[in-house]
Amino acid sequence: MRTPRNETPDWVTAEVGFAAGSHGTGVAYADVALAGRSRVMRVPFSVQSRGSESRAVGYAALTAIARALRGWKVERVRFAVDDPVLIADLGGHRDVPASLVMPYVHLRCALNQLGDFDIVEAIETDLTQRARAEVALNAAA
Questions:
Q1: What is the pTM of this model?
Q2: How far apart are CA 61 and CA 65, in angstroms?
Q3: Whose CA is closest to 78, among 107, 113, 116?
Q4: Alpha carbons 132 and 44: distance in angstroms, whole number
Q5: Which residues does 86 contact at the CB level (< 8 Å), separation at least 6?
Q6: What is the pLDDT of residues 35-74, one digit of tens each?
Q7: Residue 134 CB contacts under 8 Å (≥ 6 apart), including other chains
Q8: What would the CATH number be for the domain defined by 12-131?
Q9: Percent helix, strand and coil across the chain, each rounded to 5?
Q10: Cα 95 to the chain's mean position, in Å?
Q11: CA-to-CA distance for 61 and 109, rounded, in angstroms?
Q12: How far apart are CA 137 and CA 117, in angstroms?
Protein backbone atom coordinates (compact mmCIF):
# COMPACT_ATOMS: atom_id res chain seq x y z
CA MET A 1 0.00 0.00 0.00
CA ARG A 2 1.36 3.39 -0.98
CA THR A 3 1.33 6.21 1.53
CA PRO A 4 -0.81 9.14 0.35
CA ARG A 5 1.33 11.98 -0.98
CA ASN A 6 0.19 14.41 1.69
CA GLU A 7 1.57 12.13 4.43
CA THR A 8 5.28 11.63 4.75
CA PRO A 9 6.24 8.13 5.88
CA ASP A 10 8.01 7.86 9.22
CA TRP A 11 11.74 7.38 9.42
CA VAL A 12 12.85 3.82 10.09
CA THR A 13 16.10 3.30 11.97
CA ALA A 14 18.29 0.40 10.91
CA GLU A 15 21.34 -0.33 13.04
CA VAL A 16 23.61 -2.38 10.78
CA GLY A 17 26.39 -4.84 11.50
CA PHE A 18 28.20 -6.93 8.91
CA ALA A 19 31.20 -9.09 8.10
CA ALA A 20 32.57 -11.13 5.18
CA GLY A 21 35.09 -13.89 4.89
CA SER A 22 38.18 -13.95 2.71
CA HIS A 23 36.23 -15.61 -0.13
CA GLY A 24 33.74 -12.75 -0.29
CA THR A 25 30.73 -14.43 1.33
CA GLY A 26 29.21 -12.30 4.03
CA VAL A 27 26.23 -11.63 6.22
CA ALA A 28 24.63 -8.36 7.26
CA TYR A 29 22.30 -7.89 10.20
CA ALA A 30 20.04 -4.93 10.79
CA ASP A 31 18.07 -4.14 13.91
CA VAL A 32 15.13 -2.33 12.35
CA ALA A 33 12.87 -0.10 14.44
CA LEU A 34 9.59 -0.15 12.52
CA ALA A 35 6.15 0.93 13.75
CA GLY A 36 7.23 0.93 17.38
CA ARG A 37 8.68 -2.58 17.17
CA SER A 38 12.19 -3.81 16.67
CA ARG A 39 12.99 -6.61 14.25
CA VAL A 40 16.35 -8.13 13.37
CA MET A 41 16.88 -8.96 9.72
CA ARG A 42 19.65 -11.19 8.40
CA VAL A 43 20.72 -10.74 4.80
CA PRO A 44 23.49 -12.74 3.11
CA PHE A 45 25.60 -10.97 0.53
CA SER A 46 28.69 -11.52 -1.54
CA VAL A 47 31.49 -9.26 -2.57
CA GLN A 48 34.05 -9.69 -5.29
CA SER A 49 37.10 -11.09 -3.56
CA ARG A 50 39.64 -8.30 -3.51
CA GLY A 51 41.15 -9.59 -0.34
CA SER A 52 37.71 -8.62 1.02
CA GLU A 53 38.69 -4.96 1.16
CA SER A 54 36.66 -3.48 4.02
CA ARG A 55 35.15 -0.71 1.92
CA ALA A 56 33.84 -3.20 -0.66
CA VAL A 57 32.39 -5.31 2.16
CA GLY A 58 30.63 -2.27 3.63
CA TYR A 59 29.22 -1.28 0.25
CA ALA A 60 27.90 -4.79 -0.45
CA ALA A 61 26.42 -5.19 3.04
CA LEU A 62 24.60 -1.86 2.97
CA THR A 63 23.37 -2.57 -0.57
CA ALA A 64 21.87 -5.87 0.61
CA ILE A 65 20.18 -4.26 3.62
CA ALA A 66 18.81 -1.34 1.56
CA ARG A 67 17.32 -3.74 -1.01
CA ALA A 68 15.77 -5.89 1.71
CA LEU A 69 14.23 -2.84 3.39
CA ARG A 70 12.86 -1.67 0.08
CA GLY A 71 11.26 -5.09 -0.26
CA TRP A 72 9.51 -4.36 3.04
CA LYS A 73 8.16 -1.17 1.39
CA VAL A 74 10.27 1.02 3.67
CA GLU A 75 10.82 4.46 2.17
CA ARG A 76 12.81 6.52 4.67
CA VAL A 77 15.74 4.92 6.48
CA ARG A 78 18.34 6.19 8.90
CA PHE A 79 21.21 3.70 8.76
CA ALA A 80 23.51 3.51 11.79
CA VAL A 81 26.83 1.86 10.90
CA ASP A 82 30.17 1.41 12.60
CA ASP A 83 32.20 2.40 9.54
CA PRO A 84 33.41 6.03 9.39
CA VAL A 85 34.89 5.55 5.90
CA LEU A 86 31.56 4.30 4.52
CA ILE A 87 29.81 7.29 6.11
CA ALA A 88 32.36 9.67 4.61
CA ASP A 89 32.05 8.05 1.17
CA LEU A 90 28.27 8.45 1.17
CA GLY A 91 28.13 11.83 2.86
CA GLY A 92 30.64 13.69 0.73
CA HIS A 93 31.92 13.99 -2.76
CA ARG A 94 34.99 11.84 -2.40
CA ASP A 95 36.64 9.85 -5.12
CA VAL A 96 36.65 6.11 -4.63
CA PRO A 97 39.39 3.84 -5.98
CA ALA A 98 38.75 2.41 -9.44
CA SER A 99 38.30 -1.09 -7.98
CA LEU A 100 35.36 0.21 -5.90
CA VAL A 101 33.49 2.25 -8.49
CA MET A 102 30.99 -0.46 -9.43
CA PRO A 103 30.25 -1.57 -5.83
CA TYR A 104 29.76 2.12 -4.97
CA VAL A 105 27.38 2.60 -7.93
CA HIS A 106 25.37 -0.48 -6.89
CA LEU A 107 25.08 0.91 -3.37
CA ARG A 108 24.00 4.36 -4.55
CA CYS A 109 21.38 2.80 -6.85
CA ALA A 110 19.96 0.77 -3.94
CA LEU A 111 19.89 3.85 -1.71
CA ASN A 112 18.30 5.98 -4.42
CA GLN A 113 15.40 3.51 -4.61
CA LEU A 114 14.48 4.61 -1.10
CA GLY A 115 12.44 7.76 -0.74
CA ASP A 116 15.05 9.25 1.59
CA PHE A 117 17.98 8.00 3.63
CA ASP A 118 20.50 9.18 6.15
CA ILE A 119 23.60 7.49 7.45
CA VAL A 120 25.01 8.06 10.92
CA GLU A 121 27.86 6.64 12.92
CA ALA A 122 27.13 3.96 15.48
CA ILE A 123 29.36 2.27 17.97
CA GLU A 124 30.32 -1.33 17.26
CA THR A 125 27.22 -3.34 17.88
CA ASP A 126 26.37 -6.85 18.91
CA LEU A 127 25.20 -7.27 15.32
CA THR A 128 28.75 -6.74 14.06
CA GLN A 129 30.04 -9.33 16.52
CA ARG A 130 27.25 -11.70 15.52
CA ALA A 131 28.11 -11.32 11.82
CA ARG A 132 31.84 -11.86 12.51
CA ALA A 133 31.10 -14.98 14.53
CA GLU A 134 28.85 -16.39 11.81
CA VAL A 135 31.43 -15.74 9.11
CA ALA A 136 34.16 -17.33 11.24
CA LEU A 137 32.00 -20.41 11.90
CA ASN A 138 31.23 -20.78 8.20
CA ALA A 139 34.92 -20.48 7.33
CA ALA A 140 35.81 -23.18 9.88
CA ALA A 141 33.14 -25.56 8.60
A1: 0.87
A2: 6
A3: 116
A4: 13
A5: 55, 58, 59, 62, 119
A6: 788 999 999 999 875 544 788 999 999 999 999 999 999 9
A7: 19, 27
A8: 3.30.420.10
A9: 40, 30, 30
A10: 20
A11: 14
A12: 33
